[in-house]
Amino acid sequence: MADTRPTVWVSQPLIDAAIAPLRDRVQLRSTDTVTAWSPDQIAEQLASADGAIITLNERIGAAQVADAAQLQVIANVGVGYNNLDVDALSAAGILASNTPDVLTGTTADLGFALLMATARRITESERWLREGQWQQWSFQTMLGADIHGSTLGILGMGRIGQGIARRGAHGFGMKVLYHNRSQLPAATEAEVGATYVDLDTLLAQSDHLLLVLPYTPASHHLIDAVALAKMKPSATLVNIARGGLVDEIALADALANGRLAAAGLDVYEGEPKVRPELLALRNVVLTPHIGSASLATRTAMVQLAVDNLVAGLGLDGGLSRMPSAINADAAMAARVTLGKKTGKR
Length: 345
Ligand code: GLV
Prior knowledge:
Helices cover 36% and strands 13% of the residues. By secondary structure, it is an alpha/beta fold. The chain folds into two domains: 7-98 and 295-343, 3-Layer(aba) Sandwich (Rossmann fold); 103-286, Rossmann fold, CATH 3.40.50.720. A seven-stranded parallel β-sheet has the order 8-7-6-9-10-11-12, sandwiched between helices. The chain has a five-stranded parallel β-sheet with strand order 2-1-3-4-5. Helix 5 packs across helix 7 (159-172). Keywords: NAD, Oxidoreductase.
């Protein structure tokens, strides 16, 4: 008898235990190998899928869904979704979702870890020690910048930004300034311990500036040579959002020429490639996009993606809504126009 269960493409190895509940409900097409899918291969996979669970590695736009007539849901395992052309998906009646909330604390932790490693020169010290350069204890070795009592700037004040603000204000006694598209309600500002300022003030006053804003065409290279010149030469810059927020050539230049003290980067414009100009610098801490990478959080992210997929495909008999759909209204409206079945959201 023909297998009538929907086909679901899982683009990368994820967390098996969290995928397992899907096994008897769908025809799963998955891989054990981390794969750099080409745009055409992604289109090919989607062309015969009803749903997909994908990661930030897969860029999906109009061309990738052009032949995906039966595709109903794309569940992105990640909070940022600049890898998706949401307008193109909506126009094709394809529901998309992300994984907010479950990764907030873990990602805020990583932001703080990177800030501390960068300001206190942790990885630089370790490299120096391992190279056998520590001949004698010296008063002047690896002098860094303080975290406690300093001014923390946060650019982008969503859930992760707020988590970082709390850690800074309540954990380390920092003065916390932030800039965001919209100012938080006064009660939230008081709870997280942060004060709203304009972007120039944030750049000028921060001892440590953390980037946690979404990457969009409007925020492309927001931190460029001009912005960097407004920062204190003693400042630390940390980026845990997306590489494209920063002009990396301008950043490397500022770091090499004493116009910025140090940078901590978890994300890169051309990742997984990291610019040689950055790799050559001693005053940069580099991590391979591990913001949400704790076992518990990565498991929760896959579970949330699975929940979105199950609801989006109506596998639960329409009992639940997608917990974190990105484009439910637009996609459902397009389905009506396209004469596609409306399914569940
Ligand atoms: C990771 O960068 C994410 O957006 O979840």
